[in-house]
Automatic annotation (TrEMBL):
Name of the protein in question: Hydrocarbon binding protein (Modular protein)
Origin superkingdom: Bacteria
Secretion signal, residue range per the UniProt entry: none
InterPro entries: DUF5943, NO_sig/Golgi_transp_ligand-bd
Amino acid sequence: MLSDGRVLADPLNEYASPPQMQHYTALERFRFASPITRSQPCFWSFNMPKHAPELPIQVDDETGVWTTDSVPMLYVPRHFFVNNHMAIEAELGTEAYAEILYKVGYKSAWQWCETQAEGHALKGIAVFEHYMKYLSQLGWGLFKTEHIDLARGTAEVRLEHSAFVSEYGKCERKVDYMFTGWFAGAMDQILAAAGSSRRTVAEQEFSASEADHKHGLFIVYPI
């Protein structure tokens, strides 16, 4: 409160109530629930067991650019990234923002899998598993392939300790939608490399941010 009696808005709650969300229209069956209710961030516990990064990280002496497998990387605080994510979500609306992120994520996953498959002489399911391991080492969360069938173009990916859930908390809607396009993009690149014309779509079944769920689950199925 200021000396004249005015009360400043809490900056942490600035994006607590984005516009009312509607059912997702760009992807069938991709559903969202009610608007976000911002919970207190869940910061990392310094008492948890830790280990050094397993990813090969190099820093250019002249430019300061970080690279992993020759791919330029950015190392930023999680709350910084999620705060930006929340601001854009509030401005565009979740539906429009999710559609954009799906397309971008799909394209990026395809490119990454294509490059890694060539660089590490990988193919098939090994590419998908390599991608899940890589993502799990970047701080987004722990991704585990519960099921994958290349012949059918189907997969299920379990997500634990999501970076988004850690910041949003239990808000009764899916907050991990940024990841969704990644799984279809990875699957389709693997199928294309094998000479298959089959293409897929991905959606999130549920999130740890929703009641009664302790982890997230994404599914991939053919179009």
